[in-house]
Amino acid sequence: MEKKYELTNETIEVDGYINLFRIRALKDFGDVKKGDLGGFIEYEDNLSHENDCWIYNDAKAYCCAKIYDSAKVYDNAQVRYSAEVFGNAKIYNNAKIDGGDIFGHTQIYGDVIIYADSRIYGNTKIYDNSKACKKTMTAQNGGSSKKDIIPF
Fold first, then answer.
1. Residue 39 belongs to a domain with what CATH number?
2. Which of 42, 110, 139, 148: CA 20 to 30 A from 125?
3. Does residue 151 lie within any of the structural domains?
4. pLDDT in tens, 65-108
């Protein structure tokens, strides 16, 4: 497998003890060009070298999180604590994915927090200050804001 990115020497510390490394593209793929800097990861296991998935800006993936397929993570979003973001899912702004599975064409943005064991998929949009906790599952073609998220 040909690598699509490398870890740079630029690091940041999160949660008081975890070192993350900025990534740099080694080849063109999707909307990413060779040499583009991406966000931060803890290990290469956090971001697949296959397909068009990418972490942009100052977004972060760590603590066993996995980003793969064509998923994208932007801005200051964080994917962590064994969360998996895949398919064509997009995570933006200051969203925090603290476990669970985010996939399909889901878009999560704003100051959303998704907690462990949640499954968010389909064409779902979750935004503003929403929180999905316990074992939330959404599979819809609409959007959820504020308190519209229902645990199962």
1. 2.160.10
2. 42
3. no
4. 999 999 999 999 999 999 999 999 999 999 999 999 999 999 99
Q: Judge whether 92 lies within some domain.
A: yes
Nearest to 145 by CA among 117, 119, 107, 116: 107
**Alpha carbons 102 and 6: distance in angstroms, whole number:** 25
Q: Cβ(37)–Cβ(8) under 8 Å?
A: yes
Assess contact for 137 and 115: CB atoms under 8 A. Answer: no
Residue 140: what pLDDT? 61
For residue 54, tell me if it sits in a domain. Answer: yes
Low-confidence ranges of the chain (pLDDT < 70): 134-137, 139-152
> Please, what sign has the CA dihedral across residues 30, 62, 107, 94?
negative
Under 8 Å between Cβ of 103 and 86: yes
Total domains in the chain come to: 1
Question: Which of 52, 20, 57, 21 is closest to 37 using CA atoms?
Answer: 57
In a domain? residue 150: no
Residue 53: count of CB within 10 angstroms of its CB: 26
Residue-number span of the structural domain to which 66 is assigned: 5-145
Give just the sign of the alpha carbon dihedral 39, 43, 47, 50: positive
What is the predicted pLDDT for the residue at 136? 67
Question: What type of residue sits at position 132?
Answer: A
